[in-house]
Amino acid sequence: MDLGISGRWAVVCAASQGLGKGCAIALAKEGVNLVINSRRHAAIDAVAEELRGLNAAIEVRPVAGDIGDPATREAVLSAPPQADILINNNGGPPPGDFRDWSREDWITALDANMLAPIALIQACVDAMAARGFGRIVNITSAAVKAPIDVLGLSNGARSGLTGFVAGVARQARLAGHNVTINNLLPGSFDTQRLRGGIDKAAGKSGRSHEEIAQARLDAIPAGRFGTPEEFGEVCAFLCSQQAGYLTGQNLLLDGGAYPGTF
After folding, report:
1. 192-205 helix and 209-218 helix, angle to the nearest 10 degrees
2. How many C-beta atoms lie closer than 10 Å to residue 4's C-beta?
3. CB–CB of 50/26 below 8 Å?
4. CB-side neighbour CA atoms (13 Å) of 67
5. Could you give the angle at which helices 116-131 and 152-168 cross, rounded to 10 degrees?
C-alpha cells in the first residue's frame, strides 16, 4: 500500500534506538524526509547514515540534544522546511516507590513525558492545519491502559498527555483540516530498555535473565516480544493519507497482553 506521504517531512524524537528508530526506519522506507533527534551526537549521526542508506531519495537531518530542553526543541523544529509529521517520543522515568519521589522527581517526569510533547504539538498544529495535512503520533505506554505500580511517574505523566490529546485532537480547527493526533501504547518490545529491565529484575531476584524473560513472555498471548520494526510500521500507517479519519485514539500494541474489553 502506498501511504501517500512520500516527500513529506517528519520530526522523530528519541530516534537513535528502539521504538523511535523503528518509526524513523518505517517512514524512511515510505519516502519521508526526516529530522531525527537524540541526546547522543554519535548515535544519532550513525542512525542518519543508516536511514540515508535505506532510501537515497530522502533527506535526513540529525539534531542532537535533550528534547525536554526548549533550545533543542527549537533546533529540531527549525531543521525542516516544515513539519508535516511529528512523532513524540522520550525515555520514561525510572521505576520506584511513590513514597520516595520528591516534587523534583515529578517535575522531571512531567517535563519529559507530558510538557515537552505538548510544547511540540503546540508549535506544529496550526501550521499543519493551514497546509491541510498533519499527523502527530505520541509514543506513550501500555501502562496508560493498565498502570504498573512501580511506574507511577510514567503512569502519571503519560496519562496527563493522554487526557490533553483527547481534547485537543477533537478540535474542529484541527480534525476538520486533516490534522490527526493519536497515541501509540507499546507493550513489551524487544528493545535495549526491555533487556536492561529484565537484567535488573534478574539481578534483584536471583533468577536468570532467561527465566525472567520467559515469565514475561508467558503473559503475552502472542508468545513473543514485539519488534521495533513492526511498531514503526503501525506508526507509519497512522501518519498515512489513509488514516485521516482516525484521531484522538489510543492504540495498544501489546500482543494481546491487556485482558480487558475496553
Report:
1. 110
2. 15
3. no
4. 34
5. 20
How much is the pTM? 0.96
pLDDT tens digits along 68-111: 999 999 999 999 999 999 999 998 898 899 999 999 999 999 99
Express each pLDDT in 132-162 by its tens digit. Answer: 999 999 999 999 999 989 999 999 999 999 9
Q: How far is the C-alpha of 137 from the C-alpha of 249, rounded, in Å?
A: 10
Residue 201 — pLDDT band, cuts 50, 70, 90? confident
How far apart CA 170 and CA 175 sit, in angstroms, is 6
Give residue 40's pLDDT: 94
Secondary structure of the chain in HEC code, one letter for each residue: CCCCCCCCEEEECCCCCHHHHHHHHHHHHCCCEEEEEECCHHHHHHHHHHHHHHCCCCCEEEEECCCCCHHHHHHHHHCCCCCCEEEECCCCCCCCCHHHCCHHHHHHHHHHHHHHHHHHHHHHHHHHHHHCCEEEEEECCHHHCCCCHHHHHHHHHHHHHHHHHHHHCCCHHHHCCCEEEEEEEECCECCHHHHHHHHHHHHHHCCCHHHHHHHHHHCCCCCCCECHHHHHHHHHHHCCHHHCCCCCCEEEECCCCCCCCC
End-to-end Cα separation, the chain, in angstroms:
29
CB atoms within 10 A of CB 42: 10
